[in-house]
Amino acid sequence: MPDLSVLVTGASGFIGRHVSTYLSKKGFNILTTDLKGADVNGDLSDRVFVLDVVAKLRFEAVVHLAAVTDIKMSIQDPHKTYIVNDFGTLNLLEAASRKDVQRFIYASSANVYGVPVELPVKESTPFNPRTPYDYSKVVGEHLVRSYAATKKLKATILRSWKIFGEYERLTAAIPNFIKCCLRGEAIPLYNGGADTTDPYYAENYARVIELCLLNEKAVGEVFNVGTGVERSIKQIAMEIKRLTNSNSTLLDLPPRSEAEKEPMRSYPDISRLKQLLGYEPVVPFEEGLRKTISWVKAVIG
Q1: What are 40-76's pLDDT values in tens digits?
Q2: How far apart are CA 233 and CA 93, in angstroms?
Q3: 3-class DSSP state of 233
Q4: Are strands 61-64 and 103-109 parallel, antiparallel or unpaired?
Q5: Are 9 and 65 in contact (CB under 8 A)?
Q6: Which among 196, 136, 118, 129 is positioned nearest to 162, based on CA atoms?
Q7: CB-based contact 143:101 (threshold 8 Å)
Q8: Cα–Cα–Cα angle for 19, 21, 26, nearest 5°?
Q9: Whole-angstrom Cα distance, residue 18 to residue 203?
Q10: By the 8 A CB rule, do 112 and 160 touch?
Q11: Per mean pLDDT, which range of 43-47, 217-221, 262-266 is the poorest?
Q12: What is the CA radius of gyration of the chain?
């Protein structure tokens, strides 16, 4: 069993809850922080909170998940997005550097690639961000790299495709599709559901983080995280319809924003993750959907 104390930021969020629970079950000592509902509550963009409170806590590794992740919100309020996602990251990097942590795992996003210039997307694929959220993750990566280069911080960057599972906000695509199917309502498909991604259950992401915490080969690396399988948003909706035995219709809608007007095909090459860390997904797509469907059923009653 690992004897490692890990600080998880954004731990009250959907992914944070999955990661914290998973790592706890695997024997890690987990310390959580978020705006509320965590072991230590506060704002990571507040330098005083991070350096005078968080930095004095006992932990040997950091899993940095805290961020504004809502694309629409990032377009409406870019300033807040950059303050939270980048100044918060900068404060945490400084605290981690001062403590000389054994690992700093940064949750980036496949969104840094925007509409990818090649498929499948490799870690070497050029950045092509579209929205303020995308740009905030590009900036965050550069901040992490700078601390790795100048402060010898043992960092790993994870660029994740679409994570789903219990606790995600019901307005997010997959929980919303499930809710619509359970209620017999039309399923809204922006861009007609033509965009593609690589959706996977949250426990698979937690497994990647576990491997990064335990394996020295993860230090200094960037990993695409997914399953390597491309699925369109429309295909995801159809699969949820099948699993819920729903009669819901599909409702074609225009793009969410001008920045997302061009339908995006995106799925990762995860060979680096497999080769260096021996990663294989632990929960199949359909099983993950069934778990999420059961949770949504319980939530909406």
Answers
A1: 999 999 999 999 999 999 999 999 999 999 988 999 9
A2: 35
A3: helix
A4: parallel
A5: yes
A6: 196
A7: no
A8: 95
A9: 7
A10: no
A11: 262-266
A12: 19
What pLDDT does 1 receive? Answer: 55
Q: How high is the mean pLDDT of the chain?
A: 96
The residue type of 93 is L
Joined together, the tokens standing for residue 188 give 């809204």
Q: CA-CA distance, 280 to 274, in Å (whole number)?
A: 7
Parallel, antiparallel, or unpaired: how do β-strands 103-109 and 200-201 relate? unpaired
Sheet containing strand 61-64, strands side by side: 40-41, 29-34, 5-9, 61-64, 103-109, 155-160, 222-225
Q: How many residues does the chain have?
A: 301
- Please spell the DSSP secondary structure of 88-113, one letter per residue: HHHHHHHHHHHHT-SEEEEEEEGGGG
Going 150 to 54 to 137 to 292, the CA torsion angle's sign is positive
Q: Which residue has the tokens 């590794």?
A: 61
Contact predicate 224/95, CB 8 Å: no
